[in-house]
Amino acid sequence: MPKDTKKDESNELENEIENVEETTDDELSLQEQIAQLTKKLAEQEEIVKRAQSDYFRTKMEFDQYVTRADAAKAGYEVDGLMKALEKVLPFVNQLKVTLDNTPADLEENTRAEWVWLLYTKMIADLAMLWVSPIVVEIGSDPDYTLHIPIGMEDTDDEKLKNKIVKEIEGWFVYEKWEVKKVVMPAKVVVGS
To answer: Could you give the CA distance from residue 60 to residue 52 in angstroms, rounded to a whole number?
Structure first.
């Protein structure tokens, strides 16, 4: 083989070695870039996870706030209604007492009928506000959230001992969905 051919082969071999070295350097450079991009991707994914977590936590806290605010608003409305009812209901009870104590000869009187119509209208209006009279059942146990025993009365009937024997004054209760508030408890007499 001529010298030139050997020289060419050796040059080619050197070029191939340089190409392999360059390729190896390029591959290392690419691997480093891939590693850096992978690291950046992991960092970005962590940032997204934290942002999603913060978003869901903030949304949950806001939803809880809205629920509490709605409950407080409903509570304020009920409290305002209770204060107004405390002023109006004594008048309604007085109308009932007046009707219960109307003498028989005056029951056909137009004024007595007017009082009866006024009383029934007020009871209907109160029902629209979810306010109803407390039902007092004679012979039942007093419910101390609904009834105030203001006295005791002797009774011969053993079944009426420690039971309600008489209603002195009826009052009203507010009931709307799960909210139940007694405006003022009914006054009753308990048997002894």
So the answer is: 12
- Residue among 173, 176, 188 at smallest CA distance from 85: 173
d(CA 176, CA 132): 11
> What phi and psi, each to the nearest 5 degrees, are found at residue 166?
-160, 145
**Are the C-beta atoms of 93 and 171 separated by less than 8 Å?**
yes
Per-domain residue ranges of the chain: 3-191
Ranges of residues in the chain whose predicted pLDDT is under 70: 1-26
Give the pLDDT confidence score for residue 20 in this predicted structure: 58
**Residue partners of 137: CB distance under 8 A and separation at least 6:** 164
In b/e form, how buried is each residue of 44-57, taking b as 16+ CB within 10 angstroms? Answer: eeeeeeeeeeeeee
Side by side, the strands of the sheet bearing 179-182 are 131-133, 172-176, 179-182
